[in-house]
Specification:
The protein is about 65% helix and about 5% strand. By secondary structure, the chain is mainly α. The chain has one domain: Nucleotidyltransferase, domain 5. A two-stranded parallel sheet has the order 1-2. The longest helix has 19 residues.
């Protein structure tokens, strides 16, 4: 199940690379993201808290206005 999902994600990333070019970093985030990274050809950065960090940035911006 996980391998099929990882291959689907890799296919999507491959399509994006072919359209925009391959000079991009691909960030993997979330609770089970490390499992995906193990089987992926493209996922190369792991940040388990990226979504939470983004929410904090948003909250700071809202508080300023």
């Amino acid at each position: 199940m996980v391998l099929g999902t990882v291959r689907a994600i890799d296919g999507l990333i491959e399509d994006i690379f072919s359209f925009y070019g391959t000079d991009m970093k691909v960030v993997c985030t979330g609770g089970q993201a490390q499992l995906a990274m193990e089987g992926s050809r493209f996922l190369n950065i792991f940040d388990p808290y990226l979504t939470l960090k983004g929410m904090l940035v948003f909250l700071d911006q809202v508080r300023k206005h």
